[in-house]
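Today's session is about reading a structure prediction critically. Students often jump straight to the picture, but the first step is always the sequence itself: look for stretches that repeat, for charged clusters, for runs of hydrophobic residues. Only then move on to the predicted structure, which in these notes is written as discrete structure tokens rather than atom positions. Here is the chain we will use throughout the hour.
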Amino acid sequence: MSSDSHFGIPIIELPTNSKDLDGGSDEWRSLCKSVREACENHGCFQVVYHKISSHLQHELFSLIRQPFNLPLETKKQNVKSKPLHGYYEPGGDFLPFYESFGLEDASSCNSSKASPNLMQIHHHNHFYYQLRRVMKYSAPPSGEYTKVVSAHTDKLCSALLCEDGISGLEIETKDGEWENEYRYSLGTFAVPVKGTIIKAAKEMVDEEHPRFFQGYRFHGLRRLRKCR
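Below is the predicted structure for this chain, in token form.
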């Protein structure tokens, strides 16, 4: 495992030997330290993992492109009441060049095989589940620069993005500068389950370190933000 930086964004190279990822090993502890420091100091990092071949990546994005070629009426069957969980159609002033699909419980093979109108909600034993979104960012008219999606911070537990190598994503660095990064994209997001209350862990709270913010229900906040 090695760590570097690119445009101020930490780069963490994962070991290709699976034994090095065993919990408790020196490599594992070093990796955990690098991830923790990247999250604390930058809020994000880039992962390099050489066991994923370029051929596999090409096949992945070839498959990702397919659902976007479906008829619009078929795509609209993927309807969800929860924000970010269904089909987003491009158009309007807010997201004129952005189109995406949501697939709930992304870690489930059966969920991945479900048709757009039969995606089921699964029960979960943890406080979060995986939401996968396949995203298409269309190019604006030639010679025109525009923000496809406004500057934002993801409000979920974590976000893992796999890009197709086409320049477009911009990341704000620690010093406030914006850098072009790697526009088809595959995103996997950790989403708190319904009813989860977000608050500082009790192990981190004492008389010298009281809570500054009241706990809140995650999905209630999402609905409030959507209404606004």
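Discussion point for the tutorial: Helices lie at 26-41, 54-65, 72-75, 109-113, 218-227.
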